[in-house]
Amino acid sequence: MASSDSPLNLLDQSASSYLRSARHQPVRWHAWGLEAFARAQAEDKPVLLDIGAVWCHWCHVMDRESYEDPELAAILNEHFVAVKVDRDERPDVDARYQAAVSAISGQGGWPLTAFLTSTGKPFFGGTYFPPDDRYGRPGFKRVLLTMAQVWRERREEALDSAASVMAAVEQNENFSGRGGDLNLALVEKIAESMLKQFDPRYGGFGSQPKFPHSGAIDLLIDTATRTGSEKAREAAVLTLTRMSQGGVYDQLAGGFHRYSVDERWVVPHFEKMLYDNTELLRNYVHAYQSFVKPEFAHVAGEIIRWLDGTMSDRERGGFYGSQDADIDLDDDGDYFTWTKAEAQAVLTAEEWAVAGRYWDIGDLGDMHHNPQKNVLHVRFSIADVAREAGISAEEAVERLSAARSKLLQARYTRRTPFIDRTLYTSWNAMAVTTYLEAARALRLGEARDFALKTLDRLLAEAWDGAAELAHVIAYPENNQENKSAERVAGVLDDYAFTVHACVDAWLATGTIAYYHAAMTLAETMIERFFDRTAGAFVDTPLGGEDARLGALTAKRKPLQDSPTPAGNPTAASALLRLEALSGKTEFREIAEDTLGSFAGIVEHFGLFAGSYALALARLLLEPIQIVVVGEDANADQLEALALAGFAVNKTVIRLHAHQLIAENLPEALAETVPQVPHPEDAWTLVCRGRTCLPPIRSSEELLEAIGSGK
Fold first, then answer.
1. Which pLDDT score, from 0 to 100, does residue 171 have?
2. Where are the alpha helices (DSSP H) in 373-511?
3. Is the peptide bond before 476 cis (omega within 30 degrees of 0)?
4. Which of 501, 384, 381, 506 is nearest to 431 (CA)?
5. pTM strictly above 0.90
């Protein structure tokens, strides 16, 4: 293994946590950039591209087995120019080479190992390669020597392969499906395709492994609320319930791991991602709004507490990117799991009688590497556990609460898995939106304040106030000293999610500066990313300087939620929200054109088309706009009633009386709201489409007005 005394390679100049973790390796790594490809061309060498992430277990395995091995490093350095990429830092690079390797081998994921021509075109690739032949995979040494020989002796074959792979990437990533109709039937088809994959026993979709599919869950919540579909309601409720009872949910601290390896949600991959938790938090908030189940509000609160305590910069604002699964390569989630003896050593006999049964902690656990290790998950209800223990349900809850606190405190004494404290723009914008929604629905003032602090930092540090938005707000402080790494330009997701965050901040505060920021960013997003010739948005700036490097020459128009909401429907939805506030018809036209670009093919994407279906519903359904004015408890009550029942086409705006002047309002509202004769105390204006009702002052009237349009 490379030691900290080894000479540093060029990755020492990187700010990325993942790249810096390889700076002591004997491989002469380059970060992605012109310098690496210029060297490859000057030396007439192919490029070895490694794409991974700091939270990726098998990336660290391959690092230790191969890239820290002096013999393999010598082969690499002699025959290749080596480039290492952090997939969180460069999602644009990752997406294209994932598509390329999938076209070559039918596989994808991390680590991604690709062999490129000196200009960056992929001609061979795979994922994890062991150092020698095993697991039915060729050894990495053999692969390296074979690819070096191919480059020397069968160059034309490699170039032909690269050309065909790039053609496949262009075709697969530049979706085009005009010809379908934009109608609610398409939304229903997508929802139906999701329901066909619903697992009625354990919740979720399909079999193992199981991923959350947050976009699909939100679509089913909206469908159930809007149409009364019992199937959609059952699928959403059972999925959220079973997930929160499973080991995929951290039963002690809150927050979700990335996915479950089994169909019962018991054994997860233990890394925790910011984006998974923000999107699942939205699911639980929306489900609580629609189905009024207290347990969903409880889970939402626990996710927030975990994010607050572990994944955020409380002083300056901002959410960290990820928490690793493991301490080192010799453990597999040991920080999160328990043997029976470990749990009993912490708890009293009375607490153990409840906690051991409730979380199914036994002599035989759930983990392959250590069968004694248990993943805490809920197997029995608290009522059943109380009955078995011969105590009341209230006493069982108290004992369980005490057990949770003791186990959590004991867990804090263990070495904590690495937290990547990089603040990514798109993920932070997603978190801002989610926190603001949760704060309004659950009346959480601190969550609201922290969301606004985070957004203010994003706008101050990642945005220049005009056109330039960076992909990273800030790197960890200990990564910043003496680093020459250039700022990574923002991609479509960064702009689209930040527009949403600014709109949500305006809805929650009425502070017009957030609305103006949303408008400026939306205009820039259109200018930089919208393909006016072929339609829809590309994920990287059109004509950008980086677009000539390697596979970045391929245009990519993101349609699928994988795993975050896809860029095109997210951008379309953002423009539709702004059109309703600004009256700017071009925004709606571009959103409609974008969604129309995929109408002929999108129904085939099923689970991965949730964001698209929600954006299409927003386009087609009559918009409901509810303006709540006032500062007293009655205004709070009116706002709470307005927020009840999640609906993608409903917008709830909270204003104070002093904000009812034209210059403090978006253009469309400035033409109407200040002109409405209104009472002095709290009141509400409900508008459907272009028709507004007279001002409403009472809860009863508001409920009637909202319900009358269902």
1. 82
2. 382-389, 393-412, 425-442, 445-461, 492-509
3. no
4. 501
5. yes
